[in-house]
């Protein structure tokens, strides 16, 4: 190989209800990418057990539902690989190896673990702590070069790059000797001339990298927020969407005419960002149209837009989940295609490490 093949990888956990943040921050941004380079979209079910085992049938249903959401949003299984993580064993094997590459100090700095474990750190699962190593394995089992995610995943992607860099460095001579390295596309004194794993590019961009809670503009919109009014679920009907936007927290002022005026107004900033992302425009453009107007005028416009964009997707999700056998067939084919890429990578990795292959 003379260069890393460009490849997109991303995923969503099948936990709880998919919400507008997952859609605008991640899934909707994947759709155009599948026309630009080979793409793999994973339903990361093995991550879904790190915060406690969900009810088994709920996990099964949520896996099919997330798959349906990918397709309803426009991911085409004929163009992209769609599969569920637990079906491709290589993720687990590489994650174990990365457990031995990553340092405790690196993981101790992960803010998502601190947030999710809260005060109960001693009682959190080892899986929750090591989650970022599995995420690095998800990406690097395919030597993926581009990972589109929301802003909350930035630190995990930096860790993925640190793991790739350490592996490339620790085994630099061996990779060269085996003749399986790729010239480092951005040579630097910190890395060998030939790499096995790419240093993946995070793709975090647009007006919706962090959609905030509708009840508190300083908190991320999240599946685990106990208040359902804090988020718009992809399964919400038009009435629920309208009610949640109507009840969304705001301040008493009119919308500003320029984005500078959104500073210090997290709720206003969030609603303008949602409008911009749903309509494929910038926040500036939204404010050109709605600057000077009160929320009593802006909220109904936002609500109409959200319903117009989300309702067809919700309908399509419902249609697709009505035929679980078809979803399972897509996931099966996806898992076979994903394995065909990951298997040779793990074969190389075993060789690099020196595991004796007797089979
Ligand atoms: N609020 C958000 N704004 C923008 N992007 C977001 N993502 C999640 N929340 C937002 C992006 O969605 C993708 C899938 O994330 P995940 O399946 O790992 O779920 P998560 O981040 O754990 O989602 P939640 O809702 O925040 O779940 P809980 O409540 O369990 O923590 C990722 O690309 C993520 O960036």
Enumerate the strands of the largest sheet in spatial order, edge to edge or round the barrel: 1-2-3
How many extended strands?
7
| SSE string, helices as H and strands as E | EHEHEHHHHEHHEEEHHHHH
Low-confidence stretches: none
Number of domains: 2
Number of helices: 13
Terminal Cα span? 26 Å
Can you tell me the CATH topology of the largest domain? Answer: Rossmann fold
The proportion of strand residues reads: 5-15%
Query: Residue-averaged pLDDT, rounded?
Result: 96
Apparent shape: globular
CATH H-level homologous superfamily name of the largest domain: HUPs
Biggest pleated-sheet summary = 3 strands, parallel
Any idea what the radius of gyration is?
Answer: 22 Å
Describe this structure in words.
- The chain is mainly α and 359 residues long.
- The chain has 2 domains: 8-208 and 324-353, HUPs (Rossmann fold, 3-Layer(aba) Sandwich); 228-320, Tyrosyl-Transfer RNA Synthetase (Orthogonal Bundle).
- It has 13 helices and 7 strands.
- The protein has helices at 20-33, 56-73, 90-99, 104-108, 111-117, 126-140, 154-170, 172-178, 238-247, 266-279, 283-290, 295-321, 324-353, and strands at 8-12, 39-43, 81-84, 146-148, 182-183, 194-195, 201-203.
- The protein has a 3-stranded parallel beta sheet.
- The longest helix has 30 residues, at 324-353.
- The radius of gyration is 22 Å and the shape is globular.
- Adenosine-5'-tetraphosphate (AQP) binds next to helix 1.
């Amino acid at each position: 190989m003379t260069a890393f093949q460009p490849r997109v990888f991303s995923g969503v956990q099948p936990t709880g209800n998919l919400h507008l943040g997952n859609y605008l921050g991640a899934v909707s941004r994947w759709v155009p990418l599948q026309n630009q380079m080979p793409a793999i979209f994973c339903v990361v079910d093995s991550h879904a057990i790190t915060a406690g085992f969900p009810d088994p049938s709920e996990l099964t249903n949520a896996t099919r539902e997330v798959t349906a959401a990918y397709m309803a949003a426009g991911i085409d299984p004929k163009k992209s690989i769609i599969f569920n993580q637990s079906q491709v064993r290589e993720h687990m094997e590489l994650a174990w190896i990365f457990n031995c590459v990553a340092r405790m100090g690196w993981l101790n700095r992960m803010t998502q673990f601190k947030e999710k474990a809260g005060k109960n750190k001693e009682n959190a699962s080892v899986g929750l702590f090591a989650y970022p190593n599995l995420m690095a394995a998800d990406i690097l089992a395919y030597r993926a070069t581009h990972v589109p995610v929301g802003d909350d995943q930035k630190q995990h992607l930096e860790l993925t790059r640190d793991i790739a860099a350490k592996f490339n460095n620790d085994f630099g001579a061996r990779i060269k000797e085996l003749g399986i390295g790729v010239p480092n596309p951005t040579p630097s004194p910190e890395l060998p001339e030939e790499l096995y794993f790419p240093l993946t590019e995070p793709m975090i961009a647009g007006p919706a990298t962090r959609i905030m809670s509708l009840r508190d503009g300083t908190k991320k919109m999240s599946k685990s927020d106990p208040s359902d009014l804090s988020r718009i679920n992809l399964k919400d009907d038009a009435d629920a969407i309208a009610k949640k936007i109507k009840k969304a927290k705001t301040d008493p002022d009119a919308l500003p005419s320029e984005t500078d005026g959104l500073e210090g107004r997290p709720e206003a900033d969030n609603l303008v960002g949602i409008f911009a992302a749903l309509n494929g425009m910038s926040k500036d453009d939204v404010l050109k149209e709605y600057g000077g107007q009160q929320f009593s005028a802006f909220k109904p416009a936002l609500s109409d837009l959200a319903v117009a964009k989300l309702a067809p997707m919700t309908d399509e999700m419902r249609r697709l989940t009505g035929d679980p056998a078809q979803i399972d067939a897509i996931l099966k084919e996806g898992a076979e295609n994903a394995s065909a890429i990951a298997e040779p990578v793990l074969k190389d990795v075993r060789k690099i490490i020196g595991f004796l292959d007797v089979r």
